[in-house]
């Protein structure tokens, strides 16, 4: 059964209030993740993160994911947060099922996200998703729906791996594209007739994997510019920062988000004693782990998915002057049957309660 507690914890954390721009280097991934609200929008409806999954059976994996809430529909930020939370929770539960091919597992995770967002918003809200699943044996898989993109880059080329779910892309139109042809024909939350794109990534040492929302990839009309930014940047953090800067200089009309990984993919295979999930976004990080509950002198995990979450905000990396104003606090909370027995512990964070 899906750990709905885990899904809820991640959703709430992703919906917290953040600053307008965040750039974060993540050592555990040898990558960087960044997001910018832009110069026009009042809210950032992009959600982008690195995730390390270590379930109760000792299986570990990594996930890099971006989701872009659809403008003009109901609460795009919540749709994107729910899509990310659903994919992560599904993968956490499914990793121990060794008979499931990773590609099918990732596909089912995105299908579950579609069902979840549709069930919540009933076609009135939706989001794109693009994600990369890395396994400890070195294999990497990708999945997408909508127009968020994944690129593979080296010094010679910038190659788009994903296919945009737009009329223009399916008609393989080039050159100037009519506005009506840029509308999405498939997205997470549409309900029926949804089929995510899934594949494996073959990579070579020295290449980069780049995930971006459309606020960045509209620059792909100048692919040489994007390639030069990647190749000339001294590190992944600078690459992510420069991509957002160019997007802003070009008008910043949409939220812009980017995550970049350099190959070969670094994988920290250190297993935890208990299952857990670690998440890094441009503004901070969150750790969620299973909390053993003693019953009758023995320890076991609660059937409803008892968990403990620790959020370590890194807002000080963006604005150190704000860090002194933050206060640590703890609060126990019960919220419907899904959250019975859940202890939420926040440190230097602003998770909404």
From TrEMBL:
SUPFAM superfamilies: PP2C-like. Residues 301-319 have a biased composition (Polar residues). Residues 300-336 are annotated as: Disordered. Residues 30-263 form the PPM-type phosphatase domain. Residues 323-334 have a biased composition (Basic residues). InterPro entries: PPM-type-like_dom_sf (IPR036457), PPM-type_phosphatase-like_dom (IPR001932). This is PPM-type phosphatase domain-containing protein. The lineage of its organism: Bacteria, Pseudomonadati, Pseudomonadota, Alphaproteobacteria, Acetobacterales.
């Amino acid at each position: 059964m899906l750990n709905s507690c885990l899904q809820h914890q991640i959703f709430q954390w992703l919906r917290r209030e953040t600053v307008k721009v965040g750039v974060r280097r993540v050592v555990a991934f040898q990558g960087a993740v960044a997001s910018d609200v832009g110069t026009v929008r009042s809210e950032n409806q992009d959600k982008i993160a690195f995730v390390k999954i270590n379930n109760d059976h000792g299986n570990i994996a990594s996930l890099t994911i971006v989701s872009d809430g659809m403008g003009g529909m109901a609460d795009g930020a919540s749709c994107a947060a729910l899509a990310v939370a659903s994919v992560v929770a599904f993968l956490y539960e499914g990793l121990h099922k060794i008979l499931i091919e990773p590609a099918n597992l990732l596909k089912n995770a995105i299908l579950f996200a579609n069902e979840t967002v549709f069930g919540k918003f009933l076609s009135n809200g939706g989001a794109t998703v693009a994600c990369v699943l890395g396994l400890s044996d070195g294999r990497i898989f990708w999945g997408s729906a909508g127009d968020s993109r994944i690129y593979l880059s080296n010094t010679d080329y910038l190659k788009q791996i994903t296919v945009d779910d737009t009329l223009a892309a399916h008609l393989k139109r080039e050159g100037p594209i009519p506005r009506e042809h840029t509308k999405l024909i498939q997205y997470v939350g549409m309900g029926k007739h949804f089929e995510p794109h899934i594949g494996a990534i073959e990579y070579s040492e020295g290449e980069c994997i780049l995930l971006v929302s459309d606020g960045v990839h509209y620059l792909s009309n100048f692919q040489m510019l994007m390639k030069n930014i990647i190749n000339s940047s001294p590190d992944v953090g600078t690459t992510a920062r420069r991509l957002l800067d160019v997007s802003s200089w070009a008008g910043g009309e949409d939220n812009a988000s980017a995550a970049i990984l350099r190959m070969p993919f670094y994988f920290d295979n250190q297993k935890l004693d208990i299952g857990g999930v670690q998440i890094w976004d441009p503004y901070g990080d969150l750790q969620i782990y299973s909390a053993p509950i003693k019953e009758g002198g023995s320890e076991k995990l609660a059937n409803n998915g008892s968990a403990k979450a620790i959020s370590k905000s890194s807002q000080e990396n963006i604005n150190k002057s704000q860090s002194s104003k933050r206060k640590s606090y703890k609060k126990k909370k019960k919220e419907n049957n899904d959250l019975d027995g859940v202890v939420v512990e926040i440190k230097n964070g602003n998770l909404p309660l």
